[in-house]
Amino acid sequence: MNRLHVLSPGLLTTVQDLGRFGYAHFGISASGAADPLALRAANLLTGNAENAPALEMTLTGGEFAFDQPAVIALTGADFSSGLPLWQPIQIRAGETVRCPRALNGARCYLAVRGGFDVPLVMGSASVHVMTGVGGRPLRAGDTLPIGDAAVRLPRKPARGIPVPTQPACLRVTPGPQASDFGDELYRTTYTVSEESNRMGIRLKGPPLAASAGQMITEGVPLGAVQAPPDGQPIVLFVDHQTTGGSPKPANVISADLWRLGQLRPRDRVRFERVTMPAALELLRDREEWLYSL
Predict the structure, then answer these.
(1) pLDDT tens-digit series, residues 63-82
(2) Exposed e or buried b for every residue in 259-276, given b needs 16+ CB within 10 A?
(3) How far, in Å, CA of 214 to CA of 261, rounded?
(4) Span 270-285, average pLDDT
């Protein structure tokens, strides 16, 4: 069996797929890839189903070796590997792949043809970093078996790939408490805090006005923009809690969730309001691009 050997794991490298669903009532969010677009593209480029387990590297990548020849794809941020991005790459037996550091964006994905043959927990291979559900981040000396679950031939290089921009524009639809707020969320450029993690993207800037009165705790979705008591917005991320008592003026649209995954500390962020029909149109455009691969 072909295996990937972890020579160096980087800062935070985990196995991720598109997440586990149906467990929010147990307090377990879906987790999954922080940039789902890049993970899906990496899998499609190598001939896998889009939900196959792949590696997610954060800010600094790892060093990996393969027992046997393999076909891989690197998508997302450029981690200065020296290998071409967003296309299938043939790897020789014993060859080492090094991804030292991010030159742009925050996360790079490494998919291998056949996927990683790792155990599923609640139907998913994703590592929920904050709780340990699904495993732990990779360590030096770990090995991952490579499966044989490819579903088609590797594809041609991707065109029109998404590129992170500065400041990042996050398009949003109104949240359930939008009427409690004015327009200050949309007039300000925020800075991503170093305290951000997979639970939430914490932003720094002029505080949002607090919502009047007390709010009953309610369910919260991925991409919800919360206004905590200090008024500094938090965008709920892939390992987010499933309930919360802070008002939510907005929610990041599905077509822009990949942008959240590529934000890194000190990046600048602004918000733009869109209608629900516009959000659906943007999602359709993104899906059409993905399935053109």
Answers:
(1) 999 999 999 999 999 999 99
(2) bbbbbbeebebebeebee
(3) 32
(4) 97
- 237 exposed, middle or buried (CB, 10 Å; 0-12, 13-18, 19+)? buried
User: In a 10 Å sphere around its CB, with 0-12 CB exposed, 13-18 middle and 19+ buried, how is residue 249 labelled?
Assistant: buried
> CA 226, CA 185: separation in Å to the nearest integer?
11
Coil, helix or strand for 36?
helix
| Cα pseudo-dihedral 293, 260, 224, 173, rounded to 10 | -60
How many Cβ atoms are within 10 Å of 212's Cβ, its own excluded?
A: 8
Q: In whole angstroms, what is the distance from residue 102 CA to residue 154 CA?
A: 26
CA distance 269 to 205: 10
What is the number of alpha carbons within 13 Å of residue 166 lying toward its C-beta?
A: 10
d(CA 225, CA 240): 12
Region label for 259, one of left (φ > 0), alpha (ψ between -120 and 50) or beta (otherwise): alpha
Global model pTM greater than 0.90 = yes
